[in-house]
Each structure stands twice: as structure tokens, then as C-alpha cells.
Amino acid sequence: MITLKNIQFNKDMAEIQNMDFQTVRMNSGNYFEAVLLKNKLFDLTKNLEKIFGAPKLPSEEELSAQMQEIINGFGGVRGNQSLYFLKEEEYYVFAILWPWQDGEHITLKIIHSPAMPH
Questions:
Q1: Domain boundaries, the chain
Q2: CB-CB neighbours of 97 under 10 Å
Q3: Four-residue CA torsion sign, 30, 40, 24, 77
Q4: Which is nearest to 34 in space by CA: 100, 80, 84, 115?
Q5: pLDDT confidence of 1, banded at 50, 70, 90?
């Protein structure tokens, strides 16, 4: 994972990544993906909102073309999914929650990507 200068940000992200996930699919470089059970969602969203604030999608908020391209590279965001994002130093950081059709599982994806100058 990218090491950012913001120590509190790094501590908060580590706290999320160390939660009790059912499965951690990927924890490498700039990408983290894990599956959690619905009963852990409250704690996860509380931690996500501490870092990112309220989810940005689903909403009417527009994302830049660059941000949309990054998100689409990891599967995009649809109506029943949530997107959190912020710009931290020279990076975008995204967290995406994908609820499963079984109603019990949720996939969390956290993506760090360099923010390109416009």
C-alpha cells in the first residue's frame, strides 16, 4: 500500500484492513479487497466515514473522467453499491462496498491511485 505522510490516515486505514473479514482476497500494493458478513457492516461504515465522510454514490455527484476511469477499472459502481473517496496528498483513495445478492456478504474494495494533473 502507498505510504502517505498523513499518519492518522495510515492508522485509520490499517484499522479497517485489520477488521474481522470473512476473507481477504487481496492486500497488495495499492489495492485491498475483502469480504465481510453483513453483521460487520455497521463497524466498517463507521470506520469508512471517519476517513472519507459520507458515501458519495449512489448520488447525483459527478466524478471526474479520470476518477470514473479508475473506478471502472475495478468493476465500477452501480445503484446498490456505495463509493467513498478522497484526495490524500497526490493520490485518490476509493473505497467501494458491493453487497452480494445473498443479502449476507459484502465485498470491500480499497484503491489508491495517483491523481493525474488535468
A1: 7-39+53-114
A2: 20
A3: negative
A4: 100
A5: very low
DSSP conformation letters of 45-76: HHHHHHHH-S--BSSS----HHHHHHHHTTT-
For the chain, what is the largest distance between any 2 Cα atoms, rounded to a whole number of angstroms? 41
- CB atoms inside a 10 Å sphere around CB 90: 11
If we measure between CA atoms, which residue out of 37, 39, 45 comes closest to residue 16? 45
What are the grid coordinates assigned to 13, written together? 486505514
* Global confidence as pTM: 0.83
Q: Which three cell numbers stand for residue 2?
A: 502507498
DSSP 106: E
Q: How many DSSP H helices and E strands does the chain contain?
A: 3, 5
